Every structure is written in structure tokens, then in C-alpha cells.
Amino acid sequence: MGQSSKKPFRMVLVIKHVVEEGPGLLADFLKAKNCQIQVVELAKGEKLPSKIEKLKAVISLGGPMNVYQEKKYPFLKLEDELIKKVVKSQIPFLGICLGAQLLAKAQKAAVKKGPGKELGWSCVNLTEKGLTDPLFSGLKKELEVFQWHDDTFDIPEDGLLVAEGDFCKNQAFRLGESAWGLQFHIEANPQMIKAWLGEDLESSNKTKRNEAKKIVDFAYKFNNQFVAQAKKIFTNFYQIILS
């Protein structure tokens, strides 16, 4: 017999803003599910699709830029337009870190400087609504997550806060039944975190170097639990895609 005629379902679009911040664990999960993934490298000049009809889901990743730096990074305006169309069409959308801020901005919510830089591991808590949210179904109230951001977002007028933190309150929100923004990273594996902290790990500043090492060491130590937690969120999002 020839090869199976079974084909992966329609395209999952993954938007990268910088080369260093890829889909990591999320890509591993989607590939295992036989999903067809299109990664767009905006920093390399690749273009976002002009049509969204063939998209089954959109995932927007992190990046060091601010959502309002559209003159310096023209692709941010184009992505803003894409997100608005995706949300209006109720195509499942997942924004991570910068991607979450872009979702908030696309829905006219403020994105601004947070109370300070949040870098490293922290606990976020699901709200009462978050405990029954489709994306976080089956998870404990307290999640250990990796953070790296200066900015924060207000919750859009029609949005719902589903996770909050002590230092930076707004950590995750849902918009309608198909779009989510997560301020924290769920896709990063220990190797990615180590690469992101490369400069700090080599810093001449002993305090900075030691702090970076603690973050990386914890990433490896906590990896099994983090992967299990992330996989549950990915599985929930996959079910949303299929629904």
C-alpha cells in the first residue's frame, strides 16, 4: 500500500519577532500532533499572510520591542492588523509575552511600563474564572512560570482576567471564546532560557552572573514539572483548535 492519505489539518501560523525567541516546547507538541506549522520570521523580513482563510490557529511569540515601536519595527503595525482580523474571525489565537501585549493593543487596551522588570521564575495564580477557563482546565490554581518583560497590559474592555501575579497583576486574559494573551512564557525550554541569559551568564558583574545561573539551574531542575504544565495548556489549546 502507498503512504497514508491522512493529511494534517489546516495551517497553524507561528509569528516570531526575533530569531532567538522561537516556539520551543510548543513546536514540539504541535509537530507530535501532525500539525502543519508555518513559522514567519519577521526579523528576517518574512511577510505575514495577506489572507487568513486557511489558518486554523495563530500563535504570536515574544520579543524585546515595545508594541508602539511601529516606526522602528514596521511589521508590528501589519501584525496588529492581522490580529484584529483573526480575532474578528474567531480563529484561535495565543499570544505569549509580546504577543499578549499585541493582542491587548489590537483590542484598544493600554500597554505600558509595568511596576519594574520581571525576570526569572515566579508564581501566578488562576482567578476564579481562570480555574474554569478552557485554556487552563485541569491545572492547579498556582502556576510556576518563567517571566521576562518590562511592560504590562490592561485587560481589554471585553476581556476576562484569568491569571494574576503579585508583582505584575495582569498575567493572562481571554477575549471571547478563541483568543488568549499570556504575559509569561510557556514555550521556553532550559536551553532557550540559557541562551536568552547568555550575556548575563558571562557578565563581569558577579551578582548578575549568579542570579542568571540560579534562573538557569532552576529551569533544568524544574523542567519535568514545567513541561507537564505546559503540555496541559498546549493540549487544551489543541482541543480549542479542533472544536
Poorly predicted runs = 1-5
- Structural class by sheet pairing and helices: alpha/beta
Q: Sheet with the most strands?
A: 9 strands, mixed
Distance between the termini: 32 Å
Q: How many helices in DSSP terms? A: 8
Structure description:
The chain has 243 residues and is α/β, with parallel strands linked by helices. Helices cover 34% and strands 27% of the residues. It has helices at 24-32, 75-88, 98-106, 128-131, 190-196, 198-201, 206-221, 223-242, and strands at 11-16, 37-41, 55-60, 93-96, 111-126, 142-153, 159-165, 170-175, 179-182. The protein has a nine-stranded mixed sheet with strand order 2-1-3-4-9-8-7-5-6, sandwiched between helices. A hairpin with a 3-residue loop joins strand 8 and strand 9. Helix 1 packs across helix 8 (223-242) and helix 2 (75-88) packs across helix 3. The longest helix has 20 residues, at 223-242. The radius of gyration is 18 Å and the shape is globular. The protein starts with 10 loop residues before the first strand and ends with a helix. Mean pLDDT is 94; it is low at 1-5.
Give a quick rundown of the structure.
The chain is an alpha/beta fold. Helix content is 34%, strand content 27%. Helix 1 (24-32) packs across helix 8 and helix 2 (75-88) packs across helix 3 (98-106).
